[in-house]
Amino acid sequence: MLELKDICFERNNKKILNHINLKLDIDKFYVITGPNGSGKSTLAKIIMGIEKPDSGTILLNGEDITNKSIDYRAKLGIGFAFQQPVQFKGITVYDLLKLSTNKELTKKEACNILSKVGLCAIEYVDREVNKSLSGGELKRIEIATVMARNPYLAIFDEPEAGIDLWSFQNLTEVFKEISATSKGTTLVISHQERILNIADEIILMGEGKIQKFGKKEDVFDHIFKPKKCCKEVAACERGR
Amino acid sequence: MKEEDRKLLKEVVGEDPTKADSYNIRKNGQKLDRKVNPNINIISKEDNSGIDIYVKEDTLFGTVNIPVIITESGLKDVVYNDFHIGKNANIIIVAGCGITNNGHWDAQHDGIHRFYLEEGARVKYIERHCGLGVGDGKKVLNPVTEIHMAKSSYMVMDTTQIKGVDDTIRTTKAELDSDATLVITEKILTSKDQQAKTEFIVNLKGENSSTHVTSRSVATDNSYQEFISNITGNTKCYAHVECDAIIKGEGKVKAVPEIFAKNVDANLIHEAAIGKIAGEQLMKLMSLGLSEKEAEEVIINGFLK
Q: How much is the ipTM here?
């Protein structure tokens, strides 16, 4: 359903994305992982249209969306949860959820959405989405705005970033629920083994390239295989 | 009452002003209609330059509407309205001015409102200003609010000027005795070549008095706004002044904060933030399917809500 063809993105003479080719299927849960600076977030932003690639093509169900705007892509069913949730003065959680669903939403329906991300809804629905909320609360609300849209392709950029361990444990349950019930494709950028464990397939990135892409078990072997130093390898070879 | 007057009044008051417990409606410098009740009395000043509003002590849940409308191009209306709020009374006051100027001459309203709150009185004061009409004469509003707050009194002042006012100088002065609290929220939107200047001068005289002033403004096109706050803490007291502004196009906003602590226990804070709409805010709303223009509207409407 989503296909990236030969995507390149360079800034300040650094190749952030270097000839990326990727195909995502319907109804799967993907996790992109890799070290800091490997290009994960840039890749996600390019899919949503927040960044424009220098070259390459993005196809969604065969339609070329490379030069389409963020809102056009949103209307096609792409959703994006920001790594740093955006705050708004004067806009309440309820307002934001109404905008997300693009329909007349009752407070009860809004509360149901918030309950899915583990927030005691009645306490939050009329609060402003501003700095009075904690990092964990903002993160959950951000995730709720994406879930409320039932997107065809939901992208979550490092949902664990900036939240405490306890909040993160609860968030893992949210993603398990999404994985079990979502009818669309989910793409999560994460460093956390607990999130990686939920994935159907993992995309391992490094130095702007996809280093490994495949089933969880296969990529796990690649990520967690102990790496021997040259000296040890030489000693082993001598012993053999 | 003419239908067009009713419409303009609704724009100012937000509803039919004649539904309030008591009201005084002024049009083009003259009394149009008035209603009083046993607890709230309204008396014209002898020179017809305004009214005195008397609220008896211990009055609960009273409402007073005193809107002003101006429909004559070239009229300059100056009015002095004095509010005497009795001990422990609890009241909502809705005031404001709507100008429809379809002519070439400037139309101006200067409303000078003086509040005298006795001990324990509680007031919610809502003030709305707007300008309408297709004439090239200016719509000018210069409201002055003077607030005298006795011990343990409490006042919320909520002022809004959203559209159509070409020139405004808004002055608010307050003096607070011990344990008195004043909360001010101001929202202003200017566009085209409009100018708005607001000044808050608050003198915290009594121990444990406090004030919280929030100004949210949006300056678009080629408009100019100036926000001046001047808070003096003479004793153990608390003040928080917050000025947030969004600028668009060639809009300009100047914030001038002045806080003066005259006592070691005075705790005075000023925050000011001026800037364009954050790119992340636009992107977030666009990722929910809103166009850039729709996203801007949602952000500004929320900001001024």
A: 0.90
